[in-house]
Design brief:
2 domains, 10 helices
Length: about 250
């Protein structure tokens, strides 16, 4: 089955959704290309389109940490577990915990599913990478029940979300831009030293104060150039005042 080769052209959610709909069994390889993580490879095993296992170098809680977080494993049990693992290397943590009677198989299964979701969460944070899919004839081993579509797809970023966000952002920018009338009013208020919250009484008071100071008739002793500049400013302030009161 063909899938887009780069994350920049799709999202992991779109790829997993397509493989789920096709009900395929196989392996998704995700190789990072960002400068600081280039070369790191992650693997997602699928059985009939459902996620059954994830291999990743990303830091996620180990089984013991998850059980401790939920108060199902204490420090004493942790020490005993480490001793058992040393005595019998290669055995799965969950098997040892069940064998020692610390937790049930159902509890281990729930913790493994939580860990699986954590691994997928880490992969969904990757922004730069290449993707490939390899069909398998044999169903990959699954340490717990496969994740359902709701668990590994719901709420995940999709390519259509990028387009929707871009369109939404463009609409927001357009709506945020002031109309020509609003723009002129803002300029007029600024000329009077006011902001958009100014009341009509404040506009009138500001205009009169400025007009009193710059009216040419109040500066008979000024030079011709100064009186001309005052007249121009008075005209601008007058125009601003009438534009605001509109």
């Amino acid at each position: 089955m063909h899938i887009p080769a780069r994350l920049s052209d799709t999202t992991l959610g779109d790829v997993l959704g397509a493989l789920l709909r096709a009900r395929v069994t196989g392996l998704v390889r995700l190789r990072e290309t960002a400068p600081h993580t280039a070369g790191r490879e992650h693997r997602i095993s699928l059985a009939a389109g459902e996620v059954v296992a994830v291999e990743t170098e990303a830091r996620v809680p180990v089984l013991g940490e998850i059980l401790m977080q939920h108060g199902l494993l204490d420090a004493t049990a942790q020490r005993s577990l480490r001793q058992r693992m040393t005595a019998g290397p290669g055995r799965r943590v969950g098997e040892l915990l069940v064998e020692a009677g610390y937790v049930s198989r159902d509890v281990v299964g729930a913790a493994l599913r939580k860990q699986l979701r954590s691994k997928l969460d880490a992969l969904f944070q990757i922004r730069e990478g290449t993707l490939s899919f390899h069909v398998a004839c044999v169903t990959p081993p699954c340490p717990a029940a496969p994740l359902t579509a709701r668990e590994f797809l719901r709420g995940r970023p999709r390519a259509r979300d990028r387009q929707g966000n871009s369109a939404s952002h463009a609409r927001h920018r357009r709506s945020a831009m002031p109309s020509p009338v609003e723009h002129r009013r803002r300029e007029a208020l600024a000329l009077l030293g006011l902001d958009e919250a100014a009341t009509q009484a404040e506009v009138t008071r500001a205009f009169r104060q400025i007009a009193t100071k710059i009216h040419p008739d109040r500066h008979i002793q000024a030079s011709e150039a100064e009186r001309r500049a005052m007249a121009q400013r008075f005209a601008a302030v007058s125009a601003a005042y009438h534009a605001i009161l509109g």
